[in-house]
């Protein structure tokens, strides 16, 4: 694992293709084969799909954590900022339960989903409640 | 979906913006329950490695050698999980790396344990690596158990405004507008507002 040059900044400099490096560079067949050998999966395409479906100005506040539930030994601090190797982001505890147990929501969803000629609006799936 | 997927992709994009001009590797993976058969720990971690290698001008010698060696086998064979972890350790220990994983709860249990153990091994060798994971609350104990003393949990939830904006936008994209009337739309928005206040 020696003598390799990394230029990740190029990978990420163009947000429209942050992970779509396949389209940014021309690889030899061998390199393409090697990359396909490492994994057949292409999360870059999934990322692009999610980004394209994202609604402008939605979710920006979610990137600001409301509270950290745990302190963890081995977690460092820089100024007032807590630094951890791994951040696990999850929904407010119990919100999924509240949602699924919401009678008004349940009855409305039933009403919508059983309407013969109407699409089923899953306007509040459990994942949304995360 | 509003929070998990969108938050993960926002985090990835922001990291990319901030990493501009620096030699920082940013990788991501989106778990999907519908693709659980394909999304094994080996293929998932292999895809992280693939993203890192894709950003390199030259493929690391160790990876090239392993690739050439497997060609000798009849039909070839994919890299083993342990080999992938070693390769990831080697790269992440020499370069700042961010790994973003969305919806870890949608990964099958056995595979999820392997993913967490592998991430733990990576962090042991390269403490400078930073990992961002989203998932439903029920997997939190697993993370605490397998990444003890390394993980910190954060609670995130959509704001009322986010939900309203999201629903307005999605309802506006309705391809069967005749199926929706103002009353139903108002009901949906009202219920969503009640939910967001919980």
Helix segment tally of chain A = 6
Q: What is the CATH superfamily of the largest domain in chain B? A: P-loop containing nucleotide triphosphate hydrolases
Largest sheet of chain B: 3 strands, parallel
Task: Name the strands of the widest sheet of chain B in spatial order.
Answer: 1-2-3
3D structure, described in words:
The complex is a heterodimer of chains A (130) and B (198). By secondary structure, chain A is mostly helical. Helices cover 37% and strands 8% of the residues of chain A. Chain A folds into two domains: 1-54, no CATH class; 66-130, no CATH class. The radius of gyration of chain A is 22 Å and the shape is flat. In chain A, 28% of the residues are buried. The model of chain A is unreliable at 1-27, 69-75 and 93-130 (pLDDT under 50). In chain B, α5 (109-125) links the parallel β2 and β3. A three-stranded parallel sheet of chain B has the order 1-2-3, sandwiched between helices. In chain B, α2 packs parallel to α4, α2 crosses α5 (109-125) and α7 (160-172) packs antiparallel against α8 (182-196). Chain B has eight helices and four strands; from the N terminus they run αβαααβαβαβαα. The longest helix of chain B is centred in the middle third of the chain and has 17 residues, at 109-125. Chain B has helices spanning 4-19, 41-54, 61-71, 81-92, 109-125, 140-146, 160-172, 182-196, and strands at residues 25-30, 97-102, 130-134, 151-155. The chains are: A mainly alpha (130), B mainly alpha (198). At the A-B interface, α1, α3, α4, β3 and α5 of A face α1, β1, α2, α3 and α4 of B. β3 of chain A pairs parallel with β3 of chain B.
